[in-house]
Amino acid sequence: MEFNGQALDAENIRQLAHVYAKRKIPDIDELFSFIEETNRELGGGTLLSLRKGWLDDVRLDEDDFEPNDLDRLRTTFSEGRLVGVRLPLSVKVKPERKILDTEFHVFVKRPDSITKGIDLYVRGGLTLPAESKFGDRKAYGVMVANNEIISSFLGDAENPAHTKWIYNAEKLRKNYVSPGNCLKVIKNAVVNFYDVLTQAEEEEDDKALAGFFFTEEPEQESETSGGKNRPKPKTPPDDDIEVPRRKPRLARLETTEDGFSVRPGDGADMVRYPVRLRVRMAYDTASGNPFKKYSPFDFDFSGRSGSTPFVQATSDTVALAGFSPNELEFEISGPKFRIDVSGFDKNRDLLVKLRAVPTEEA
Fold first, then answer.
1. In terms of DSSP bridges, do strands 140-145 and 251-256 run parallel, antiparallel, or are they unpaired?
2. Torsion-angle region of residue 40: left (phi > 0), alpha (psi -120 to 50) or beta?
3. What pLDDT digit, counting tens, does each position of 267-312 carry?
4. Contact, 100 vs 91, CB < 8 A?
5. What does pTM read for this prediction?
6. Domain range enclosing 314
7. 255 assigned to some structural domain
8. I need a labelling partner for 70 at 20 to 30 A (CA). Which of 192, 248, 319, 350 fits?
């Protein structure tokens, strides 16, 4: 391969990147190290492999992992080391509707030294730059699809410029049966994996949740010796220190075919009700903050401009407490609840932020 008349090879590519790309990518050395480490892991054959049912809900989330595996991955990631996972899936080809098994891989790493995050999407050696969606996430991520079957599937989904995968690509619809869900999980797997590892699937407000999840300080105990109170040591021996556990969540998000659901989290039974949940939505954008770039012509819950998505509460513990063009607010009166929001454009990536809000803010 040549660039500007100069041959590129494994020996000089990093040096040339310093010359031509350092200004645009200040952390070029860290990025090269991430790519090299990813290539080594791909060839090692020791990656965690999920069960095929992981994509039944059209999303990679923490329920797809065994608890011990997830704890191990989170620990490794928090230490700034590379973590990856093998994701099997199947595609159904036309006209014989034959099911073909395939796979792809996702890796993320969060080095302390980098100034900006980068996510890469690689199909058979080709990188699709317009798929980048890490936003403010300060980490490296990559989706690698080298298997011949999935590489062909994604090739049929590419736009003419080979920069992005699109749901309504003619070849994709012509060659595969119901390809939308497979494409959706592939496009979002890097971001979903990062969010699972950082427990950032929902945007939680610490002050809002302080009234819902709290730990009471134990009363100070003392021992009596020689008529004087002697406090117990505040710091336990090293072998008695417990690793902090993840804070329970009031609610969680699940992706559906044309929207999402809000369901109880693992801490819903611990909450003092009623509580308020606020959901904010926007379609993803190629650059900038998607929520700041939201347009009422995309969708509008007030019904004045764009299409109005359908909102359904499937339990009597949910009441709509307010709305704006791209926000919904619900009052939840008990731990058994479900909210379904549907009717969004299947050909666009929907971003959703979920948070609990105190009544005075609501």
1. unpaired
2. alpha
3. 899 888 999 999 999 998 777 788 888 998 899 998 777 678 888 8
4. yes
5. 0.58
6. 247-357
7. yes
8. 350
